[in-house]
Amino acid sequence: MEESxxxxxxxxxxxxxxxxxxxxxxxxSSLLNDILGLLPFSLVLAGQLANLxxxxxxxxxxxxxxxxxxxxxxxxxxxxxxxxxxxxxGGKPLISQSQKLLRFSWADVEKVSRNFKGLWxxxxxxxxxxxxxxxxxxxxxxxxxxxxxxxxxxxxLTAVGSIIRMMLTLLVVGFSLWGIINL
Length: 183
Known about the structure:
Elements: H1 2-16, H2 20-36, H3 41-47, H4 58-97, H5 99-102, H6 106-114, H7 120-131, H8 137-146, H9 151-181
Helix pairs in contact: 2-4, 3-9, 4-8, 4-9, 7-9
């Protein structure tokens, strides 16, 4: 029980007082979370703002961007790569073998893939989907691999979208909680 409380307090300190010491733990935990797909990491981290004793202001937002959002975004982007690679290289054989169970075939995937021509607006759509805080990243990783999205745009857009997602989540949760507390 005491160990669990220590973990909770450690996470709270990483969010409520972000600094250089928070970069590595947040990077590693976001990387592992995206590999395993355990929980809505951005919401868990932003929820720690409920324990904020001071104001939710611009200097705190700047610290949250640099010391929380960026490490989480880069860690998430690297953590997404194994699932993306597995679906990129193993998607066709897996879908072909289990098409009865999945209720779609590789021909269906190819039909959907024809709609994505690799143009700029395909990448904007992917970035917007990445930035939605409540959308899990695992289905996007799998879909991007199956439709053969190029690796560099996948990684870059995942990093940028994950940074935006984390910052949006921190903004919404922070201002909402701060507004409720100050009613």
